[in-house]
């Protein structure tokens, strides 16, 4: 009978634990989902910020390239005639 009594007490405890365990698990999962959502939002914000920074850097690089092209275009016109003459001298 000693074995039956502890089993009976355990059966009463088991009937209380599933409800408490389910409630605890629900709270745990909800907290976990909130944490995941917050982390996802933080990462998304970080990624968007980095994309914006990269876009700005690309714009600056494009402007620098255009400036260099403009400089080379002005110098290229002045230097293009002597460069054309030099190969002729080398060929002669």
Keywords:
transcription corepressor activity; mainly alpha; 1 helix; 0% strand; Heat shock factor binding protein; HS1-bd; 92 residues
- Average of the residue pLDDT scores: 79
Instruction: Tell me the radius of gyration.
Output: 38 Å
Separation, N- and C-terminal Cα atoms:
121 Å
Number of helices: 1
Topology, number of strands: 0
Q: Which residue ranges are poorly predicted, with pLDDT under 50 across at least 5 consecutive positions? A: none
Main sheet makeup: none
Shape: rod-shaped
Beta-strand fraction estimate: under 5%
Query: Percent of residues in helical segments?
Result: over 70%
Q: Write down the secondary-structure element order.
A: H
- What would you call the structural class? mainly alpha
Region (Disordered): 73-92
InterPro entries: HS1-bd
Family: Belongs to the HSBP1 family.
Protein name: Heat shock factor binding protein
How would you describe what is shown here?
- The chain has one helix at 4-91.
- It has 92 residues and is an all-alpha fold.
- The radius of gyration is 38 Å and the shape is rod-shaped.
- It starts with a helix and ends with a helix.
- 0% of the residues are buried.
- The mean pLDDT is 79.
- This is Heat shock factor binding protein.
- It comes from Musa acuminata subsp. malaccensis.
- Belongs to the HSBP1 family.
